[in-house]
Fold this protein.
Amino acid sequence: MVSPCFVIHRGDRYAIRLKDIDSKSRKQFAGLHWFPVNPSYRVTAKFVPYDPPKQIAIPNVLGETNQMPSPGYVHFTLDGHSLRLDPVLEEDHLFLIFHDETSGKETYRAGRFLDAELPKDGKVLLDFNKAYNPPCAFTPYATCPLPPKQNRLPVRIEAGEQFIGTSRH
């Protein structure tokens, strides 16, 4: 059987990504693990726009840094802590790359991803129960973005996808 392949674009480079449908990792994959859903990790954040929007530095697992567009930041309170994250703009939504105090323990050590709808009336709903691991948690061949310095949170977010396994990152 032929393995699927895809053209990917990273920075100013193109590559071909092959998927090995017969890989040992794929055949032994035991599924995903999640924290129990907790409504307290579903928070409404205030959206503060950058005027004008700015480019923020997003490092990746290859040691490169790419500039990505950020329309503003989100400010929210979680467990009594005042927190802030800089999302980047993806076509029709906000994309947040964050690291918290569960990273490297219960969750993937490099951090996790969270998608959110674009701001409405100056607000953004952040549902950390939907936080998920980047592809590089599962394969050393992915070229994942990593959390920017300002998105390293000094709190535990015991919500979303956990990480059971090993990876090079």
